[in-house]
Each structure stands twice: as structure tokens, then as C-alpha cells.
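To assess whether ligand presence alters the predicted conformation, the chain was also submitted together with manganese (II) ion. Input:
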Amino acid sequence: MASVNKIDSLLSISHDKDVDGLCSAAIVWRYAEKKGLKHDVMLTDYGGFNQVFSKVSLYRNTLIIITDLGMDEAELDTVKNGLSRAVAQGCRVVWLDHHQWSPRSIKAITSLENKPILRINHDHCAAEIAFKVLMPKDPISEELATIAHDTDFNLRQIEAANILTDALSVVRFGALDKKEDLLDAIFPLLEALAKNGINGVWNPESQTLHDPLLSKKVAHYRKERHKKMRKAIAGHNDMEIHGKLVRIVEIPHGVTTTDLGTYMAEPKNLNNDGGNLKVADLLITVGPSGKLGFRRGSEEVLCNAAAKLFNGGGHPFAAGGEWGMYEDFQVVCTDIFNTLSESHDWVVS
Ligand SMILES: [Mn+2]
């Protein structure tokens, strides 16, 4: 077995998609600095594990810290093989996450050599776990964890967290549109957060981002998003099933499920064609590639049980599933309504 004492560098692998992944990576960065370890960053999303975990076998004597990523079961072998090789070359694995893990995936990580650490806690976001495990005495890491918690639990009580969420969306959508490298695009934000916490990107006095161009882009993005969400609401499809109001909307390009879910949970946003819509008991968003998002407006609905009918899962209050590529939104709606009618699992009686 390789020695664990020779660790001389750190590899940070985190989620590219949201503020929790970003803040987790920033906390790991601060940990690397504190320990004086040379450090690399990789960001990924589900579907991209292959690219990242095939590269970890190139590392030696490196502490590999993975944050805010659950196991992508489809890529389990790639992940296991990559990490096994890295570990045989003196690496050590620390995986900090808050998603659902299967017993098989847990075993794949905990059975690695060199005393792997797998910390899964569903009550916290990943940045909070990273803060507690790696940097418990660091006020900047604590602040980053608080910011991440506010967005990950969709509390939206911290304006800096809202801005950071939108800034990250602007940067991500911009890079995806131009087919640019996501890490390159996100890196300046990550570096600023790692070095100076939220104040590295945000001026608390003027309540604006330091980067004036990004500030402008965020303002524009918010305006456009508002227009797009109005349009999505106008195209809504409602049906009462088992006494619950089920609403399906299409997600416009550049809008996230959380954006739309939050917007449509507010009665004041639901003025449609002069009439007032009720907040739906179950809101289902249909993404461009047929991905389904489930949010609820009443506790008499179980989003995870509804999502399960569409090859998905999640929490009672928020879940995700899949319908598949589609052309006709009406066909998707009819099928979803049918499937929900045939099951009572998602309704609390
Ligand atoms: Mn997260």
C-alpha cells in the first residue's frame, strides 16, 4: 500500500453547475493554500464524469477532494478505475457531498485504498460540509458556506447570493453558447471567491458586482429572464388530478428550473392575460431535452414520488425526472397528465 505521508499536491473536483459547487471549490482552494499544496481544479456535471475521472489516474501523491457531486451510476466503473489507479500512485480520496448515494456507489469509494473519506450529509449543502470538514475556523469559508446554503436551499435571503447565482448562470450560458471551456469562463469568479470570499466579487456598500461588464450582463439577463418567464406562464397547461392542481410549463432557453419554480410559486407573478392563476399544487417544468423538474405549492404532494414515475427522484419538495427528447409540448403534457392520473403515489392522503 502506498504511503499517505508523501502528499504534495491537491486536486479539486467540483460541480460546475451552481453556486454550491463553486463555493465548495473555493473552500477547497483555501484549504490547499493553508496546507501549502499546489492545486488543480476540475469542474464537471453529470454526463461529464468520464472526461474528468479518466484524468485522475495521471495524478500521484495528490489529495483528491471531490465536492458537491453525487455518484453518476452510469459512470461508476470509470470513476472507480480512475480513483483506484490514482490511489495506487499515492493519492488519497476525500469525497464531500449531500446527494443520494446507492449502497453500491458508497462501497466503491469506501473500499478504495489509503483511507478514503466519504462524507454524505443530506441536511447541509456541499459547501457547508467542506467548511466543517476542511476549514472550520476560517470565517471566509464560513461565509461562502452561508452563501451556498442560501441558494442551494432556495432561501433567497442574501442579495449577494442571488447575484452570484445569476452571475454564474450568465457566465455558464455565455460559455455554452460560444462553446468555450466552462472552467476558463468560471475561473475568475472562483479565484476571486477563494481569495477574498464574497467580497472578492461583490461590493456590499454599493450592492453591485466589482466587474461592471458582468454587472451589466446580469441586469440584462434578469430582464430577459423575466420576459421569458412571462411567456412560459402564458403557455402553461393545467389539469386537476386527484383533487390537485397540476401545472406543466416549458422552460425557455437560459432559464433554470429553480428560477421558474421560484417565480411560479409567487401568486403575484401569476397574472396571466389579465386573469389570476392559482399557485399549482404540483408544478412540472419541461426542459429543452425533455428533462422534468418537479416543485410543489402544497405539502399534499410528493415531488419525489411524482418524479419516480418518470425515471427520476429527489426530495418531497423538489425533484427531477426525464421524459426524453420531444417535439410537441402538448404530447408531453398529455402523457404526463395520463401517468399522474394512473398513480396515487404522489398524493398525500
Ligand atoms: Mn449542491
